[in-house]
């Protein structure tokens, strides 16, 4: 049974005594009988929802109700004033309600200052007792998605753990200005609402619009992170375009420029025509195309782009137009920028052509020559390569070697420019088609064939990226990249999981210069100024922290007075990742190294983020910090997985499998999910596909789970490797877990009485056997939870705490101490005080162990436990429990293993015999080895309690077992004997089991017959064979168990005959 299934079983077992394998819904006998009649009558699929509901509510269609339908629960209303502590004097609600539990606490935590780090204290604290981390700043345009939620859960768990460990703890919040994304949002709103473009407004007015939008909408995601209980130090919240961070950006740019790391050059850049900006290599996605394919791109709504073909055409020789040079290309429109054709000098087919001129059919006055270059592959295409230096990186290199002209054919918007003759003004992909048509008219088109290729797409707009020759600002990162590699190899920088180290090395060891300029208006404007007066043949650029400094530098270098110089600032802005790369320093006050925060908290401790931005952000932070401070920005990089759906698919609106964390927390019905699709931006043809996906994955919508359950679920998944396949049902199961904690507390609290206050457990306390066991298990859970969080294995921490509460504390300890508390009720003995202290320790420490993982419900319940000498004002600042070695008791734990295996065996036997839950049979137990004989007498009463026996007698000889018992082998050393006479009709039970066994044998034979079909291994797919084999094995095991029980019943019948 999976953890999921077990938890679901636990969550309902207290309320559904009728639940069995045949009756999983827990219906009453009469309701179950009616349902079976309906099925036999063939009405199973026709039975209405109302009829089924009637069965659950104990009524029949058309008959008077025997039990009223419960009234719908009224929505919780939070009456706590903002920032005040929640009133806990009210009795606990009947069941766990995440809305009620999660209200009010966060505002109180903030008001109390629990999340604020004290720089003065931190300055006097050793690094090992500090924890500093900067949040990966979400885009200011963003709303919470599962990637953010996973990040917040992991980072908050770390932060809360360190805070409870007594460390000086700082988790810095902030948002990123997100140049491209934010500008696009505001441009779209401007066009929609006012029918204007940014150019209509002008730069200053447009930026006013962007700032107004940011101030109104830009804090949405921060508020949403509060719902996840993110314990960020909001007093230190940053925005990457705040004045102090902008100062840091200018300072870094100027320093890098002065050191020769940043320079201006005309090179090929990745150009996105739709966004009209340059992109870094990391902002380009390359998709594989196997054959001719038609792609849709933004900005070309009335046509699709043909890719995945190799087009062959020919250029005529100037000296003899009846002779031709054949060319093959995947981007036909770029022939309008051709300036030469290259052949391999070793290719005997074409040596006679070298040096000869060609005629360009559309630009006849352009000089085109056949050149020789070793780069050309003699085996690819025709062996002749068209050279377009301004639009291909390889052609650019060849052009520079042969001093060829570099002719740009594209406007910034992707239309053809005036260098393209008759095709000027056409969209580049319209030109691709019209060039082909014109070549056909001129008899110069040869043909085209399928060609596998990679197509570069802008990661933001999904437009096809064009290599374009542009003057840009570049940064040489080679020196710092080498230092970043060395830091990991020397162990100074740790990357977790470590298998990402190879990726780190591969990228940094092959790093290329970074294009840091972007053709946008929103962002950090580049602090570089061009001299516009006086005029110079070559552009003169000067860099300064402000225009005055740039003017001073210009005057000094040019040797003319400042009054004779006029400067114009570069209109471009810096790549967003430039400012983000400075955050470990700039968020703390750099370039001022003497701020309290810089002295107290730099360098930070850990950087946690998704592995997809290892290079975008993490590597750049490392390189920039090393270059500017000569220190690593952090000592550990922790990378989390990407979240996919339950089937391992990437979440996509068109698949209908996108899970909104806010909807998981609040719940949403299927109709509402589908309504959101209709009002989204999906094309009509994809909406139906997405709706079918939703119907399959979320047939009943998404139940309300709350923040805690979502957190616990996401953290439990972190044990998976590069991707998390999120099944929403598992998150739902953790909502049941929260309900279990709630019910445990409701049971436990009355056992303390009115005046109990924990004084701690005396060292000489006389502990009962079950007390020793639960304290040992608690200590073990504390050790595992601490280790899991410390080593970033958060799934280990969830498993350790979950198992302690559910399987140790709830399943066994509480059941065992119930009888003790009943026996001691009303007294005031030392025995009762010790029992209460152990119970208190379990609740108190158990909640504290869970707090970093489940912050809201643990605070709610912690505030309800009695006061004690170690109890803090809030669980947020309570100590995190540690392993107590004096509590570890492996001997008692081994004894408990015997109790659990025996209990499980007896429960299974009673279930297989069909004994009613209240039967309370008598049983005997015999042990064959000395150790079991030693242990059994002291745990026999506990076994009887757990197995619901009236009593359990320990015997030494099987001959002492009375007649009418059924034996059951627990292990090779232990056997139990259960008295069933008078409790069950053995004859009727035998007939029922024999009938079941016949069905099992039939089912088994079905799968055996399938396997024995000729050519089964060859004809049946592997996944089907595996499924069939699993079914066959399951039926064999079931048959073995049925035979065993039948033999036992027959033996019992013989002894009673």
Structure commentary:
- By secondary structure, this protein is of the alpha/beta class.
- Among the domains are: 113-260 and 485-506 and 585-640, HUPs (Rossmann fold, 3-Layer(aba) Sandwich), CATH 3.40.50; 277-469, Valyl/Leucyl/Isoleucyl-tRNA synthetase, editing domain (Isoleucyl-tRNA Synthetase, domain 2), CATH 3.90.740.10; 730-866, Isoleucyl-tRNA Synthetase, Domain 1, CATH 1.10.730.10; 893-979; 988-1055.
- It has 35 helices and 33 strands.
- Strand 30, helix 32 and strand 31 (951-955) form a beta-alpha-beta unit.
- The radius of gyration is 37 Å and the shape is globular.
- Mean pLDDT is 88; it is low at 1-70.
Q: What attributes does this structure have?
A:
Rossmann fold, globular, 14% strand, Isoleucyl-tRNA Synthetase, Domain 1, alpha/beta, 33 strands, 1057 residues, 4-stranded antiparallel β-sheet, Isoleucyl-tRNA Synthetase, domain 2
Give a brief description:
The chain has 1057 residues and is α/β, with parallel strands linked by helices.
Which fold name corresponds to the CATH topology of the domain at 113-260 and 485-506 and 585-640? Rossmann fold
Low-confidence region ranges: 1-70
Distance between the termini: 39 Å
What would the principal axes of the Cα set say about the shape? Answer: globular
Count up the helices: 35
Largest sheet data: 4 strands, antiparallel
Main sheet: strand order: 6-5-18-20
Radius of gyration of CA atoms, rounded to a whole number: 37 Å
Strand content: 5-15%
CATH superfamily of the domain at 113-260 and 485-506 and 585-640: HUPs
Supply the CATH class of the domain at 113-260 and 485-506 and 585-640.
Alpha Beta
The total beta strand count reads: 33
Going by helix content, strand content and strand pairing, the class is alpha/beta
CATH architectural grouping of the domain at 113-260 and 485-506 and 585-640: 3-Layer(aba) Sandwich
Helix content: 40-55%
Mean pLDDT: 88
């Amino acid at each position: 049974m999976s953890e999921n299934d077990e938890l679901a079983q636990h969550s309902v077992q207290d309320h559904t005594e009728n639940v069995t394998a045949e009756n999983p819904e827990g219906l009453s006998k009469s309701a179950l009988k009616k349902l079976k009649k309906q099925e036999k009558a063939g009405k199973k699929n026709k039975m209405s929802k109302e009829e089924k509901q009637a069965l659950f509510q104990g009524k029949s269609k058309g008959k008077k109700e025997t039990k009223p339908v419960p009234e719908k629960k009224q929505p919780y209303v939070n009456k706590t004033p903002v920032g005040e502590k929640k009133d806990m004097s009210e009795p606990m609600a009947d069941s766990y309600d995440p809305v009620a539990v999660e209200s009010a606490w966060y505002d109180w935590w903030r008001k109390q200052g629990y999340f604020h780090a004290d720089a003065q204290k931190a300055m006097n604290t050793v690094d090992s007792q500090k924890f500093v981390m900067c949040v990966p700043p979400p885009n200011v345009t963003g709303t919470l998605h599962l990637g953010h939620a996973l990040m917040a859960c992991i980072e908050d768990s770390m932060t809360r753990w360190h805070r409870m460990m007594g460390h000086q703890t700082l988790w810095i919040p902030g948002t990123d200005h997100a140049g491209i994304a934010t500008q696009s949002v505001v441009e779209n709103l401007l066009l929609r609402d006012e029918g204007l473009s940014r150019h209509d407004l002008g730069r200053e007015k447009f930026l006013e619009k962007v700032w107004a939008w940011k101030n109104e909408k830009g804090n949405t995601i921060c508020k949403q992170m509060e719902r996840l209980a993110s314990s960020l130090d909001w007093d230190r919240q940053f925005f990457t375009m705040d004045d102090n961070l902008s100062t840091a950006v200018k300072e870094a740019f100027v320093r890098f420029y002065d050191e020769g790391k940043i320079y201006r050059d005309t090179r090929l850049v990745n150009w996105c025509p739709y966004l009209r900006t340059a992109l870094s290599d990391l902002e380009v996605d390359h998709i594989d195309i196997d054959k001719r394919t038609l792609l849709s791109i933004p900005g070309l709504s009335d046509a699709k782009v043909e890719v995945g073909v190799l087009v062959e055409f020919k250029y005529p020789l100037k000296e003899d137009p009846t002779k031709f040079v054949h060319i093959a290309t995947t981007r036909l429109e770029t022939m309008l920028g051709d300036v030469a054709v290259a052949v391999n000098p070793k290719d005997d087919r074409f040596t006679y052509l070298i040096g000869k001129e060609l005629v360009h059919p559309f630009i006849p006055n352009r000089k085109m020559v056949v050149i020789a270059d070793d780069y050309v592959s003699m085996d690819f295409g025709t062996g002749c390569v068209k050279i377009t230096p301004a639009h291909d990186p390889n052609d650019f290199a060849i052009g520079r070697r042969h001093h060829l002209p570099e002719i740009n054919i594209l406007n910034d918007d992707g239309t053809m420019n005036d260098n393209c003759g008759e095709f000027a003004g056409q969209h580049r992909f319209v030109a691709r088609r019209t060039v082909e048509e014109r070549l056909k008219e001129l008899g110069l088109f040869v043909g085209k064939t399928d060609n596998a290729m990679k197509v570069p797409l802008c990661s933001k707009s999904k437009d096809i990226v064009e290599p374009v020759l542009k003057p840009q600002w570049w940064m040489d990162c080679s020196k710092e990249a080498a230092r970043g590699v060395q830091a990991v190899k020397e162990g100074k920088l740790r990357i977790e999981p470590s298998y990402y180290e190879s990726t780190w090395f591969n990228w940094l060891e092959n790093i290329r210069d970074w294009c840091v300029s972007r053709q946008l208006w929103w962002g950090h404007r580049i602090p570089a100024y061009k001299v516009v007066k006086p005029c110079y043949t070559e552009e003169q650029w000067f860099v300064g922290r402000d225009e005055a400094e740039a003017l001073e530098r210009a005057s000094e270098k040019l040797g003319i007075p400042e009054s004779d110089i006029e400067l114009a600032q570069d209109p471009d802005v810096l790549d967003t990742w430039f400012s983000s790369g400075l955050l470990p320093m700039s968020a703390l006050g750099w370039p001022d190294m003497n701020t309290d925060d810089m002295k107290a908290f730099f360098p930070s401790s850990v950087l946690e983020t998704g592995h997809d931005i290892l290079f975008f952000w993490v590597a750049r932070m490392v390189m920039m910090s090393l270059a500017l401070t000569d220190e690593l920005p952090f000592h550990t990089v922790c990378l989390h997985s990407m979240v996919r759906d339950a089937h391992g698919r990437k979440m996509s609106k068109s698949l209908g499998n996108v899970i909104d964390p806010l909807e998981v927390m609040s719940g949403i019905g299927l109709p509402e999910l589908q309504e959101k699709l209709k009002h989204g931006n999906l094309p009509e043809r994809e909406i139906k596909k997405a709706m079918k996906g939703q119907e399959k994955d979320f047939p009943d919508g998404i139940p309300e789970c709350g923040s805690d359950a979502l957190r616990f679920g996401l953290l439990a998944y972190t044990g998976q490797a590069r991707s998390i396949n999120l099944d929403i049902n598992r998150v739902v199961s953790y909502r049941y877990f929260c309900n279990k904690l709630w019910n445990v507390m409701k049971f436990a609290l009355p056992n303390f009485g009115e005046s109990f206050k924990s004084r701690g457990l005396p060292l000489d306390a006389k502990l009962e056997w079950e007390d020793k066991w639960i304290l040992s298990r608690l200590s073990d859970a504390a050790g595992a939870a601490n280790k899991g969080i410390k080593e970033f294995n958060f799934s280990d921490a969830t498993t350790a705490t979950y198992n302690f509460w559910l399987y140790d504390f709830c399943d066994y300890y509480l059941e065992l101490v119930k009888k003790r508390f009943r026996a001691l009720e009303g007294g005031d003995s030392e025995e009762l005080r010790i029992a209460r202290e152990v119970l208190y320790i379990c609740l108190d420490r158990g909640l504290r162990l869970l707090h970093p993982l489940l912050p809201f419900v643990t605070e709610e319940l912690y505030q309800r436990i009695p006061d004690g000498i170690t109890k803090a004002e809030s669980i947020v600042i309570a100590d995190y429990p540690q392993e107590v070695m004096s509590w570890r008791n492996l001997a008692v734990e081994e004894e408990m293993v015997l109790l659990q295996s025996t209990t499980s065996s007896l429960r299974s036997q009673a279930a297989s015999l069909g004994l009613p839950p209240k039967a309370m049979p008598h049983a005997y137990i015999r042990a064959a080895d000395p150790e079991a004989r030693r242990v059994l007498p002291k745990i026999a009463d506990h076994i009887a309690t757990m197995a619901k026996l009236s009593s359990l007698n320990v015997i030494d000889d099987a001959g002492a077992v009375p007649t009418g018992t059924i034996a059951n082998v627990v292990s090779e050393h232990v056997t139990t004997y259960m008295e069933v006479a008078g409790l069950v009709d053995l004859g009727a039970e035998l007939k029922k089991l024999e009938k079941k066994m016949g069905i099992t044998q039939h089912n088994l034979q079905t799968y055996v017959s399938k396997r024995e079909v000729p050519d089964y291994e060859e004809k049946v797919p592997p996944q089907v064979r595996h499924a069939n084999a699993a079914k066959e094995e399951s039926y064999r095991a079931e048959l073995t168990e049925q035979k065993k029980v039948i033999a036992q019943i027959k033996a019992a019948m013989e002894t009673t005959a």
